[in-house]
Amino acid sequence: MKTPRRAALVVVVTFGTALLLAPIAFLLFGISGAVIVAVFAAAIVSSLWLSEICASAFMPTANATAAMLTASVVRLFLPLFTALAVAIFARAVVPISAVVYVVPLYLSALVADTIQQLRNVAAGQDARVTTVSMTGLIAGERG
Fold first, then answer.
1. Staple partner for 133: which of 52, 75, 82, 117, CB 3.0–4.6 Å?
2. What stretches of 1-143 show up as alpha helix (H) in DSSP?
3. What sign for the dihedral angle of Cα 105, 106, 111, 115?
4. Predicted confidence (pLDDT) per residue in 20-53, tens digit
5. Rounded to whole angstroms, how far apart are CA atoms 118 and 93?
6. DSSP 86-118
7. Are 72 and 3 contacting, i.e. CB atoms less than 8 angstroms apart?
8. Which phi and psi angles does 136 have, rounded to 5°?
9. pTM to 2 decimals?
10. What's the pLDDT at 55?
11. Distance between CA atoms of residues 31 and 121, nearest Å
């Protein structure tokens, strides 16, 4: 299976959630609220892409646990650092309460990722080859 199904599912769910949240953020904070939702959605999708690069970089030299932990740390901290940067540096543009929009985006991406992982495990795939990168290569494959 050389398709980026897991990544595509997370991207679609994240941007779908962003489309649902953007009108609410626009009503509360104006155009800057909608921009913040877009920034958080881009940070979550970027963290997915970066985590897959990190996982595939560790797979040939380390064990699967190191690759998984590295990918998890990147996926956790990149959106949170983005929210922290918005809270610290964009106080003049948006209120600090706009940072709360990272939570539903992050949780929806987490749910989509978990559902896809459970489908892969139920299909009998090895846990190491369920991490599909944005480019369509399966982390753990050599070559």
1. 52
2. 5-29, 31-58, 64-89, 102-122
3. positive
4. 999 999 999 889 889 999 999 999 988 888 877 8
5. 41
6. HHHH-TTTS-GGGGGGHHHHHHHHHHHHHHHHH
7. no
8. 95, 0
9. 0.73
10. 73
11. 42
